[in-house]
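Subject: two folds for Thursday's group meeting

Dear M.,

Sorry for the delay on this. The cluster queue was jammed most of the week, so I only got both jobs back this morning. I'm pasting them in the order they finished. Each block is the input sequence followed by the predicted structure tokens. Could you check whether the formatting survives your parser before we put anything on slides? The first protein is the one we discussed after the seminar.
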Amino acid sequence: MKYHIWSRAGAAGCCAALCLVLLLGGCGGQKAATSTAAPSSQSLSQAPASEAVPSGEDDTQPAPTTPQVDDTENSWNGLSDPTSAFSGCLGWGPGTAGSSLKSAAAAASMMEWADANGLAGRSGSSVRDCLAGWYDGLDTFDQENVAECWPLIQQSAQRILDDPEGAAAELSDAGVQEVPACSQEDWSALAGALNAIVPEPMQ
């Protein structure tokens, strides 16, 4: 009987000792975890102020802007607007007073436009599209007027190209101060494109 009592007492003592060991171990682990977490909080509090984004400020970068496109240039396939340069084709016709001088002035203006835009270095389609846009923008009366005057203008332009010095006097009488610096290639590019646009029966 005494043996059983002592056995039970020994077992109870072992359990108590085991519980004490576990309790002490838990307290030690909690202290270790607390001491480990402390430096992390401290390091956050000591972070340089320059690394933080001040409240209320937007640190986003502005989106790059798209370059503005010149609508006028786009509408003429990269060529300058021919409306002013080609205005000499309108308001007169073959057989009218001063038609020779007017055709010379119109030719000089168109030649200057061809030279300024370097038509010889442009694609044929871009030149045709540009001139077609100008021609299609005219009303029917003006289109017929251009068709009547265009052959005379071509003749005047060719005379200027063939003999610039000889054409200087006629150009001066027409109000053109300088002989246009236009190459045969630039003029041919313009004339070829316009010949394809103006209806053949009207030429």
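Second protein, same layout:
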Amino acid sequence: MAIKGKTLVKLSRWKLGALFCLACTTQAVAGSWEFHSGEEDELCIAIRDRLNKLTVGDLRDAPANSCAPLAVVTYPEFEMPPWQELDASKHEALIYELFRFSGLDTVAYFGRARPGSLDLWTEMTKEQQESFNRMQREEARRFIERGGRLRVWRTRLVEDFRMFSYRIYAAPGPQTIVQLRYPDEIRETANRKVCPELSKMVDAPSYLFFVTDDLSGLDSRLGYTADTLVGSEPLLLDGKPIFLAGAGPTVVTLGRDEGSGPHNFCSLHYQSSEEK
């Protein structure tokens, strides 16, 4: 009986070890960033390799904090634009208009709907319009109270503003660009699961707008380009703008304007281990 008992214990331990081994082999491993487009572009290849180097965990562990945008922004060849910081509290009226624009779009904000067509603004009742404006004013005040930043950069960012099916070539000279940037955050707890090398670096969502030279409001010459770029982060490569954007934590896109308006030349998608 004693021998049989020892044998049973050994078998139980072996089975338990086998189960642990099986769990190890079936445990989800990190996925990888793959090309959706841009596989022949040198910059796109370099960014794909960087994302795969820095993303070591499966994004299911922290899907809202993948660090992908931060990994791209910190790519050594990129430089940040020479932003000039403004006192946000002195530009509350402008910030309010920027929030209104981001909540609508170029057509609705400037009333450019085609004859007989409705837009996001004209579809609202008067009460809904008043409520919408009130919400944007409150959002502007909260942004300032939380320490949000307003930055300006005067440069020639794009060549074509585009509207409907026709082009709107930008006037000669620089354009006035402002960025609303929310307070910096360090998301160490979540980010160290998927990108430990970047876990202590600050990260902040931002929005991009074209405004008048005197900072009194949105540039009325805008077209669809303004809608396209509002959620992008401009970076400089050899002095030329590159636009970083994406769709959630699992898609990274890079764009540039080569004379006919911004377009994506690189799109990278994260594929989990189960999707491969």
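Two things I noticed about the second structure. The longest strand covers residues 262-271. Confidence is low (pLDDT under 50) at residues 1-28.

Cheers,
T.
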